[in-house]
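Hey, can you fold this one?
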Amino acid sequence: MKKLIYFNRPDCPQNMGVSQLTDNLNVFLEDRKDIIIDPIILSDRITFTKSVDEDGNNIYGYALYFEVPNDFNN
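Sure. Predicted structure:
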């Protein structure tokens, strides 16, 4: 099974499409650790640090992920 990642549109990292298909969620996040910062994988979603506000507080981004068949086309 593959994973389909769907970013909340305002949280989608620059130069990345809103939906991404991957064989391995952990490898996908590791390969993009410079743009998907501090990801936390929950049961059906990913949270990550999108930016930091002027007071130094993290602003979080969100994405959902789904298991899809290996022949799924994004």
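The longest strand covers residues 58-68. Let me know if you want another pass with a different chain boundary.
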